[in-house]
Design a protein that fits this description.
single chain; alpha/beta; two-stranded antiparallel sheet; elongated; Rossmann fold; DNA polymerase, domain 1; 12 helices
Length: 208
Amino acid sequence: MTSISPGSADALLFDLGRVVLDIDFSKAIACWAGHAGCQPESIVARYVRDSEAYRLHEVGKISDADYFASLRSSLGIAISDAQFLEGWNAIFAGEMPDIAELLPRAAKQMPLYAFSNTNRPHVDHFSKAYADLLGHFRELYLSSSIGLRKPDAEAFDHVVAAIGLPAGRIVFFDDLEENIEGARARGLTAVHVRSPRDVGNALKALGI
C-alpha cells in the first residue's frame, strides 16, 4: 500500500469505472445477444475488449459507427448501430458503494478530478445519468476528449500539467494494475482500488 498521510496530497484524481461508477459488461453482452438471437456465451467468446478499434474509439480517432461496424464483424452479429448503442450504455450499473458519501466529504478539503479511458457515447450517457455525483469533480479528463489514454505516460503527464500541481501531490485511484503502475512511473501517488473499502481507507489515511 502506498504511504499516504494527512497533508500528503493537494488533489485527488479518480478513475470512473469500478471506482466511482459500477460497471457490469455482462449487461451489454445480454442486450446484444437478445437482439441477435444468440447465446451470450458465443459473444463473450469472440469479444476482445482491448482491440485496436476499441483503443482508437477511446481516443476519439474513429466514429461510433466505425467501432460498432468492427464489433458487428468480430462478433458475427447483424444488429443495428442503435442496438449496439443500447447494450454499450447498459453497462452502467449504478454508483459504487459509499462513493456518494465519500466524494462530497473529500471535496470539502481538496479539489477532486476524474481521469477515465472512455468514449463519446459513454460520456454522453454517464454525464446525464450521474450528473449529481460527477458534479463533485472540478474537471473530468476523458480519453475521448484529450486524445490520450491510460496507462500511457503522455496521458498522465497531460493530466498532471492540466491540474497544475506536482505529480507527487496528487493521489490517483484506479482499479487496474497497469494504470496504477503507469501513474507511479510518472510520479503520482497511486491507490489500487480492489474493493470499495480501499477508497474510504485511503481517504481516512489522508485525514479526510
